[in-house]
Amino acid sequence: MIRAILILLVFIYIIYSNILAPILPDEKDKNKYESLVVLLMVSLIVTLAIIGIFTPNSQLATVVRSALIVLLTTPLGLAVLLLIFATTGIVSGGIRNPTPKRIISALVLLIIASNPLVALSIAEQAEREILQLIQVETCCQNKVGAIVLIGQGTTEPKLPYRVQIQLTDAGDRISYAAKLYRHGLAPYLIVSAGSRPDIEGHFIEASDIKRLLLKMGVLAEDIILETKSKNLHESAIQIKKILESKGLLDRIILVTSAIQMHRATQTFIKERMKVSPAPTDFYTFELNPKLRRRLMVSDFFPSAQALSITTRIIEEDFAYLYYFVRGWLG
């Protein structure tokens, strides 16, 4: 929570000092065109934010949230936004203030966010927080009603020219859930994954995950698909209904990514379930003192992979804050 608040404050400062400040009345040497563009953009963003907050389940709200997340809560999106605003200060004969500041802010933001040392440091902190709350080796000793796999985003779409179902970098959740099942820790494995948002039509990701689980030794009659949810909050609500309808215990083993586990656990607890966390998809292994990552020369240079890791952690921190504000956390 503290890291999320600090990151939010940094982003607010960047947005205020580079975008909002130039349209304030006491700003000197203003460009009327620039001020008008900035004012319209800010008004649009505020309007879209209000729509997203007060109509959270509508299709428009989903689009709005996605747009705002990309532009305002990711390093790359915010950097691009700063550069777009910077172009309004480029006029014939020179560059007007605060264009240089916006360009520098965008570059600094990208350089820091794409640095592997920064990315792995933030990832290690996030993963250490969840391991301080649970012990993976002893998470699943109590009798439970089901193993719950948060499967959204673990597989690529099964298209005709692909000979098999392809996994994403979150795909090891599937094999880990199957392993827990084979160990006899629960009688059922619930797969929570709805329609694929990036493909037109009714393509259910849970169906693809089920095919993989069958090949991993999970019995078909022990697999329950939850396909109605679009986010963690809805997933918790639907899984609670499944447990009640089948007369299963309200204690579950929850399988998802380590950086998402804190929010996921609190979300399911809010719906009156007892959760045994079983995190996977770890980015770092620095938590073991005998296994230290070797420092490489490439760690000092920008990396697309590092930017991706930083972005995912920042997105998860903001998602946690959003769930906290909405009252969805236990």
The radius of gyration over CA amounts to 23 Å
Strand content: 5-15%
Taking the sheet with the most strands, its summary is: 5 strands, parallel
Element pattern in H and E: HHHHEEHHEHEHEHEHEH
The mean pLDDT is: 82
Strand order in the largest sheet: 5-4-3-6-7
User: Which stretches of 5+ consecutive residues score pLDDT under 50?
Assistant: none
Content-based structural category: alpha/beta
Question: Cα distance, first to last residue?
Answer: 14 Å
In helices, the fraction of residues equals 40-55%
Number of helices: 11
Shape: globular
How many E strands? 7
Task: Outline the fold blueprint.
Layout: H1 2-20, H2 32-54, H3 59-72, H4 75-86, E1 90-91, E2 94-95, H5 99-113, H6 116-133, E3 146-150, H7 172-182, E4 189-192, H8 205-215, E5 223-226, H9 232-245, E6 251-257, H10 258-270, E7 274-280, H11 304-326
Parallel strand pairs: 3-4, 3-6, 4-5, 6-7
Antiparallel strand pairs: 1-2
Helix pairs in contact: 1-11, 2-3, 3-4, 4-5, 6-10, 6-11, 10-11
